[in-house]
Design a protein that fits this description.
The complex is a heterodimer of chains A (about 400) and B (about 140).
Chain A (H helix, E strand, L loop, with lengths): L33 H29 L14 H26 L13 H28 L9 H32 L20 H4 L12 H19 L46 E5 L4 E4 H7 L2 E4 L2 E2 L5 E2 L2 E6 H7 L7 E6 L7 E5 L1 H5 L1 E6 L2 E2 L9 E3 L12 E6 L1
Helix pairs in contact in A: 1-2, 1-4, 2-3, 2-6, 3-4
Chain B lengths: L1 H25 L2 H36 L2 H27 L14 H28 L10
The chains are: A alpha+beta (about 400), B mainly alpha (about 140).
């Protein structure tokens, strides 16, 4: 039975709901129920929580605090957290659509604006729905490297997340009695959700007492949950291959196919986008190392010293990742020769143009980092950062600076 | 429960305000206006266009298709929606990226067709099994739906 005192206060009486125009939409399907919505909402709350935690972890990876450097171990950490972030975000798109379908009749409550409280609730719902849809759509477009919107994706995605999460918390607070009713009621037995609130509906349990479970002549409520679950499951299984290598072959909806990248690794930012060409790299190219004891390394010296090997997965903010083997110089060796040490903060500068031209590395990632010359047994291609790129464990791909020209020990 | 509702409500409002204030501090106002336009458009397109179409289709199915077959068709459509929603932007963007990104290289139209075909086949098999079971003498004849 619906409890008394839910967010929806009666606007009429059990015997006579407020008069409404004859043309006002009405919903007769018995499939919708608070019992169904509450279950969908629970799944959504779990998905949003996972997205929030993994999203904040990604933010921290991009801007680690000085007093808490990003860890280098496990090397696949970012691969997992960001892979989960994108997979859950992608799965949330259809989940939200099903959730919104389940409560659509609520849009047509009559009268639409009976009180200031109801107007505020509707406004908060509009913010919740709009921010959630925007967050999910733009997140997915970012995975596709598609930016039809005129704003910086990262900043808006970050701060809009608080609007989404806050709206969800407010929504849970408002709907708590309904959520409790929905989750405590057996799925087939829950009151039918129509445009008429339960406390105005003569056919609700609260008013009519014990009632037989409503008949659902078409698909059952359990059927809706199962079918939606299978559909969303298909999406996850056919997209996750961009992060989970064994499933790449069945990745029919995977945006990336990591193994098809040059040298077995996709490129996030191409040499052309960074305005780097073979002609840019002069024959007498040298690596400038600045610090207490500055010095230079020629290409020949670098290649001679590039004997250290490591398996470090490449993991991108767009959720794709793949394991790879690297060969190069240990960055810490280069830093120590310039007078730095494992506690130094080091800036790695690229001669590429545009975003992520420079990145800072310190703490455990500095100790585990390579200045890589080889990828999967071959000399780095231009797109992968020839002549030299940074590669550190558990570090987002874009921060592993390519086309390195300068190392600064800060 | 009342206290929990209040705590969640206040916390929610504070978190929303934190997001809004930071959007205001970090995003230029003109850009922010575009974010608002997109946000409102998302609500209008979903509530005013997508949902009515879905409601219209389901109401049409209810009128035209008998209950027994409709269950399987509804299941197929519910499964098809997530797959289609994800595939459509990819179909639109396929082949738009440099090959070295290994991004959007697939023929997503064909892949979507394959997945929808599998979903349709599964639901058809389920329906056929249901029809056969209903006709089985052990069940005492077909039910009305």
């Amino acid at each position: 039975m619906h409890p008394p005192g839910t967010a929806e206060q009666p606007t009429g009486t059990a015997s006579g709901p407020p008069t409404r125009p004859r043309w006002w939409p009405s919903f007769s399907s018995t499939i919708r129920s608070t019992a169904l919505t509450a279950r969908l909402g629970r799944a959504l709350a779990i998905a949003i929580s996972i997205s929030l935690v993994t999203g904040l972890l990604s933010l921290y990876q991009y801007e680690p605090w000085t007093w808490l450097p990003a860890p280098a171990s496990p090397a696949w950490g970012y691969r997992v957290t960001q892979g989960v972030h994108v997979a859950v975000g992608t799965a949330t798109i259809p989940l939200v659509l099903v959730k919104l379908w389940s409560v659509y009749p609520n849009v047509f409550r009559w009268p639409p604006f009976p009180s200031v409280k109801r107007v505020l609730e509707r406004l908060s719902l509009a913010i919740l729905v709009g921010s959630m849809l925007l967050q999910l759509i733009t997140g997915f477009l970012n995975v596709l490297n598609w930016y039809p919107f005129p704003w910086d994706f990262v900043s808006v995605h970050h701060y809009l997340a608080y609007v989404v999460v806050g709206s969800v918390l407010l929504h849970i607070g408002v709907k708590l009695p309904d959520i409790r009713y929905g989750l405590q009621t057996k799925l087939p037995e829950g009151d039918v959700l129509t445009e008429r609130p339960w406390n105005e509906n003569p056919e609700s349990h609260s008013i009519a007492g014990d009632l037989p479970a409503p008949v659902t002549p078409g698909i059952s409520r359990r059927g809706v949950l199962t079918a939606a679950g299978v559909g969303i499951g298909i999406v996850v299984v056919t997209t996750i291959g961009q992060a989970l290598t064994p499933l790449e072959r069945i990745g029919l909806l995977a945006a990336r196919q990591p193994s098809k990248g040059p040298q077995g690794v996709p490129v996030n930012r191409t040499a052309e986008e960074a305005q780097v060409s073979a002609a840019t790299i002069a024959a007498d190219w040298t690596l400038q190392i600045d610090g207490p004891r500055p010095y230079r390394l020629t290409l020949a010296e670098i290649e001679q010293q590039a004997v250290h090997e490591a398996r470090i997965p490449v993991a991108a903010v767009e959720g794709w990742s793949i394991d790879a083997s690297w060969r190069g110089l240990r960055l810490l060796d280069v830093v120590e020769r310039a007078g730095g040490n494992a506690n130094s903060h080091v800036r790695v500068v690229s001669f590429g143009v545009g975003g992520f031209r420079r990145s800072q590395i310190f703490g455990p990632q500095l100790s585990g980092a390579l200045l890589a010359t080889h990828l999967n047994g071959e000399r780095l291609s231009l797109d992968h950062g020839y002549p030299l790129r940074l590669m550190a464990p558990n570090r987002p791909e874009l921060l592993n600076t390519k086309w390195v020209s300068q190392i600064e020990v800060l | 429960m009342g206290r929990w509702r209040l705590v969640l409500g206040i916390l929610g409002v504070l978190v929303v305000l934190y997001g809004v204030v930071n959007l205001g501090l970090h995003i230029p106002i003109q850009t922010l206006a575009w974010v608002a336009v997109w946000l409102v458009a998302a609500v209008i397109i979903h509530q005013g266009l997508v949902s009515p179409i879905v409601i219209g289709v389901s109401s049409l199915l209810r009128r035209l298709i008998p209950d027994r077959g409709r269950r399987y068709l509804q299941a197929a459509l519910i499964m098809a929606v997530p797959v289609t929603v994800i595939a459509i932007p990819m179909i639109y963007r396929q082949g738009s990226q440099p090959p070295s990104k290994a991004l959007l290289l697939q023929n997503f139209t064909a892949n979507l067709g394959l997945l929808l075909g599998v979903i349709a086949a599964l639901c058809l098999v389920g329906y056929a099994m249901r029809v056969a079971r209903d006709r089985s003498p052990a069940r005492g004849g077909p039910p009305s739906t």
